[in-house]
Amino acid sequence: MMGKIIAFHSYKGGTGKTLLSINLAATYARKGKNVCLLDLDFRAPSLQARFKANGNGYWLNDYLNGVCEIEKVLIDLSHLSSGNGKFLVGLANPSTEAIREMSAKDRKWEMRALGRLLSLRNSLLNDMHLDYLIFDTSPGLQYSSINAIVAADVAIVVTSLDTSDIRGTQRMTSELYDLFEKKTGIVVNKVLADMLSSTAGKENFSEHFHNTHNLPVLDTIPCFCDVLRAGGTCVFAEEKPEHAFAKTVERIAQKIEKI
Amino acid sequence: MTLYKSLQGKPIRVLEKIADSLNQLNEKVDVLIELQKHSRGGIVNESVTDVLDVMTLLSLPDHLRKTAITLCNLGQATAEEIAEQTKRARAVESGYLNQLVLMGYLKKERRGRKAYFYVEKGDPGEK
Q1: Which residues, given as ranges, of chain B have pLDDT below 50?
Q2: Residue B111: beta bridge partners?
Q3: Cβ count near A97 (within 10 Å)
Q4: How far apart, in whole angstroms, are the C-alpha atoms of residue A85 and residue A58?
Q5: Containing H/E element for B5?
Q6: What CATH architecture applies to the domain A4-258?
Q7: What totals of helices (H) and strands (E) does chain A contain, helices first?
Q8: To the nearest 10°, the Cα dihedral for A173, A176, A180, A186?
Q9: Which residues in chain B are closer than 8 Å to A146, comparing Cβ atoms?
């Protein structure tokens, strides 16, 4: 089976892209799959803080700049997973100087960056035999995010119930994902638990949401106090696989296969 | 009347010729319309190259976007190779590719009997 590239995206920030991409990667790794997670949010890098990793002298910025090959960037965190699979991460440079530099790139650079992202299919999926490559992107219509979406097989869009977030997600669906003929799945995050029970469960809520907003809903995730309390220090899919949040991510993993 | 005489009773052949010429003209006008939509300052010049970034891809009409993205994925390709992926006719893809070349987004190179199209030569990340 050929590996898959999944891009997490959202219209607004703070919807849970990073949380979900880390936990999805951990879910695959626990099942013995070979996974690579890349932080493509160059404006607000976060994986280096989550994994307390400092990079190994090379960042994804360097790969996109054509300074080094992708192997130099990847950090092996397989020891953090209880599965037999590989768990690799690629970090974005969090220094202010690097962020400033990335935001000043021109169109020609972005075009070349797209080429570098596209060639990851060959280097990571074909040559290194990885099963999943997961992109964590910047919110909104950023060059880096659109590049990631073009290079991906599936776009998972995380939205909150905020009206502006839903409207933005609808607009991106018709004016971005559809134009690139991308398979897309929407995950509605931070839904209040009583909203899910009062509308007779998740299925009804998803259906209602799908009908009112005409978006392909993959799943709904309630607000979990435990997840908020952990403040990003706990990878539930690895450390607490029996937790309802980890179970939800597992279900999303299964649904992605059917998109 | 003299014109009719000069047709020597073969008006159908003349009409066919006119239809052919109109078709050719149509194709050229299509290309010009695309050029005017996308080229800066409207200069028709094959050596003026524009950048095929994602924002540009988004602004292209659907039929050209499909061709352009397929080429981005393949790196370089012939019209036939593009047609295999898009499931459209080779001649159609050839037309779209040449249009993208005229618009300054792609380069075309002949090697023997085959014409190869590409965005940028070699490693896309190379400076």
Answers
A1: 41-48, 123-127
A2: B114
A3: 8
A4: 23
A5: helix B2-6
A6: 3-Layer(aba) Sandwich (3.40)
A7: 14, 8
A8: -30
A9: 54-55, 58
Residue A198's pLDDT is 62
Q: Return the higher-pLDDT residue of B49 and A58.
A: A58
Query: For chain B, which domains are there?
Result: 10-118 (1.10.10.10)
d(CA A241, CA A229): 17
- Put simply, whether B88 touches A (Cβ < 8 Å) is no
Q: Could you tell me how many residues make up chain A?
A: 259
Which pair of structure tokens corresponds to residue B44?
């028709």
Mean pLDDT in chain A?
Answer: 93
Between helix A143-151 and helix A107-118 the angle, nearest 10°, is 30
Cα–Cα distance measured from residue B47 to residue B34, given in angstroms and rounded to the nearest whole number: 17
- Token match 């070699």: residue? B122
**C-alpha span between A254 and A85 (Å, rounded):** 17
Complex-level ipTM? 0.88
**pLDDT > 60? residue A199:** no
Structure tokens at A156: 């998972």
Q: Residue A112 and residue B52: Cβ atoms within 8 Å?
A: no
Helices B62-74/B79-86 angle, 10° precision:
110
Q: Is A179 in the B-facing interface, judged by CB distances under 8 Å?
A: yes
Chain A nearest-CA distance from B113, in A, is: 27
Q: Which residues contact A52 (CB under 8 A, 6 or more apart)?
A: none
Given this model, what pLDDT does residue A210 score?
87
- Could you please report the per-residue DSSP string of B17-81? HHHHHHHHHHHHHHHHHHHHHHSGGG---TT------HHHHHHS-HHHHHHHHHHHHHSEE-HHH
Q: What is the pLDDT of residue A77?
A: 95
